[in-house]
Amino acid sequence: MTRPAIYSRPAKPMVIPVTRRNDFAKLAAPSIAEPVMVDKFTECHVTPSDVAARMVGYLGRQGDYLTLEPSAGTGQLSKALLAAGHSKFELVQVERHIKLAGSLAAFGTVQNRCFLEYAAEIAGKVEFPRIIMNPPFSDVRKHVAAAVSLLGRHGHAEPATLVALVPITFERGDAETLETLPADTFATAKVYTKIIRIRR
After folding, report:
1. Cα separation, 54 vs 175, whole angstroms
2. Rounded Cα–Cα distance for residues 40 and 56 (Å)
3. What is the DSSP string of 119-172?
């Protein structure tokens, strides 16, 4: 008995008709975060994330401490504060550069103005138990002095604490040096710096 070759390929072309489609939905263009452009005249040396985290650690424990960031820049120190559990509702950021200030609202209150003017205006009216700063190096003494004028316990039992990243040459009698940083700490500048702490 002859059986058909059921396992052999038929002797005809294997063609699958394909209909061309032109009605695909348009793909949405991917959103790319706008880079932060910093003018060199702002003296904004962006604090590396690991350094910012250590500075926050030197401030002390979290709590309802009104905290000041006098030269907020791109928000590196503010982000480190929030990452460590500090409240955005207790954070006041001062930044004179209008575009930089506009990007800081997500982290806390923003004052878009010169910190030296702001400090002179509120001195004696407001106390900050916590201050963290990376001030402009050319006017570092003025900025630290202005920040210290706002440093106070504000009803807390613990000492008020200021932590700052300053040039290695900065000296102040009540400042404790916590770390000396390497010259390549900042990506855009070779400068020798240190972290200091002042308590009152």
Report:
1. 17
2. 26
3. HHHHTTT--BSEEEE---GGGHHHHHHHHHTTB--TT-SSPPEEEEEEETT---
The predicted structure's pLDDT at residue 12: 65
Domain holding 122, by residue range, is 44-199
Question: Can you give the pLDDT at residue 1?
Answer: 55
Instruction: Please give the angle made by the CA atoms of 82, 80 and 60, to the nearest 5 degrees.
Output: 85
Say which CATH number the domain at 56 has.
Answer: 3.40.50.150
Does the global pTM surpass 0.90?
Answer: no
Is pLDDT above 60 for 38?
no
Strands (E), 63-102: 67-69, 91-94
Q: What is the pLDDT of residue 32?
A: 44
Cα-based angle 195, 61, 83 (whole degrees, multiple of 5): 75
Handedness of CA 87, 90, 92, 98 (dihedral sign): positive
Of 21-25, 71-75, 101-105, 116-120, the one with minimum mean pLDDT is: 21-25
Report how many domains make up the chain. Answer: 1
